[in-house]
Amino acid sequence: MNGNTAEKIELQSENTAVKNEEYLDPKKWNKQDTTWAMSLFGTAIGAGVLFLPINAGSGGLLSLLLITLLAYPVMYYSHRALAKMIYASNSADEGITGTIREYFGNKASIIFNIVYFSSIYTIVLMYSISLTNTTSSFMVHQLGMEEPSRAILSLVLVLGLIAILNFGQDITVKIMSMLVYPFIASLLFIAVALIPQWNTSMLSFSTASTGSTGTGYFATLLMVLPIIVFSFNHSPLISSFVVKQRATYGIKAVDAKTAQIQKVCYIMTFAVVMFFVWSSALSLTPEDLMMAKEQNLSILSYLANELDQPLITIAAPIIAFVAITKSFLGHYIGAHEVMRDLVMKFGKTRGKNLGEKTVNMMILIFVVLTCWYAAYANPSVLGLIESLSGPLVAAILCLLPMYAIYKVPVLAKYKGQMSNIFVILVGVLTVLASINSLF
Known about the structure:
It is a single chain. The protein has 439 residues and is mainly alpha-helical. It has one domain (42-438): Up-down Bundle (Amino acid/polyamine transporter I). Helices cover 80% and strands 0% of the residues. The chain contains 18 helices and no strands. It is globular, with a radius of gyration of 23 Å. Residues 1-20 and 206-214 have low confidence and may be disordered.
C-alpha cells in the first residue's frame, strides 16, 4: 500500500467518523450546558474572593466602582480568549500544555510549565499564610485563647493539609466538589446578614483616598486589576470545558456554544461576588478594611472580630477556614502534577530516571518546608497577589492567548476584535501593577 492510498483510506475513515458522530443541537440549552455552567461558576468563586472586598473597599468608593465595572468584562473576555486558543488546537485534550507545544514547540511548553507552576504555587503559599492567620485569629478572638506559637501552628496546619491529601486525590477532589456550593450559599448568607450593618462612610472617604488627579485614578486602577484577575481566575478548567463542548457540539459550533455557557456562568458569578463585595465593604469603614489589610486577614476573619453578631462571629471564620483549605488542596493538586513532570524531565536531561516515590518525596519535603516558612514569615497576601500571583495569572490568561492569536495562523480569524485590545490592556496593566508594587 502506497502513502497516497493510506492517506485516502485514513481521510475516508475520518469523514465516516464525522458523519456518524451525533452532535447535540447547539441552539438548544441542554442539561450538560447547565452542568458546565455550574462547574465553571463553582470554580470561579474560590477563596480569592475573600480578599477582594479588602482591596476594593480600602481604596474607597472609586476602587469599588472600578471593580464593579471591570469584573465581568475582565473575567469574560480573558477566559474567552483562552478558550479560543485551546479549541482551535488539535492537542486540546492534552490540556493547555499540549496546546502550547503544538503552537510554539517543546521549549515554549517547558517555559510555560515553569510560569504556570510559579503562578499556582504562589497561590499555595498564600493560602498557607491565610490558613495560619485565620486559625490564629479564631483561637484568640473567638475561643479566647492565648496567641499560639506561629512556628508550631503553621507547621501543624501544613502537615495536616498534606495528611488530607494522603486519603487520595480522587477522594480529596470529591470532597472539594461537595464544598463548592455550601461555600457559595454561605457567602450569600453572610452578605444578606451584613445588610443591617451598612453605612455611608465609603462615600465620604472616596475623594480623600484616591485624589482627583489622573495619577490617583491610574494608581487605583493598578491596585484593583491584579486582585480582579486573581479572584476570578479559573483557567485550569477551561481546557476540559472546551474539549467537552467540542466533542458534544462539533468544531463548527464550539465557538458560539462555549461563549453562551461562559456568559451564563459569569453573570451568576458576577452577581454573587459583587453582592458579597459591596455588602462586606459597606458594613465596615475604609479604615477598617485598611486595618484588615495590615493584619493580613481575609474579610470573613476580620468581620468576625469586629462585628458584634454572634452568628457571624462563629460562622465567618469557619467558612473562611473551609474555603481556604479547599482552595489550598485544589491548587496543590495542580501544582504537584506540574512539579512532578518538571522534576522528571529535568532528571532525564541529566541522564537520570527518577522513580515515582523519589520524586514524590522530593516534592513533599519542598512543599512542607516552603509552605511552613511562608506561613511563619507571614508576608502580605494582598502584596503577593499584586506583585506575583496577579501578574503571572494575567500573563497566562490575557497575554498568552493574545500573542497566540496574532502569531498562529489557525487563530488569525480572531484578529481585529475590540475585545483583544481590552484583554491586552488588562494583561499589560496588571504586569505594570507588579512593577509598581515593587518600587
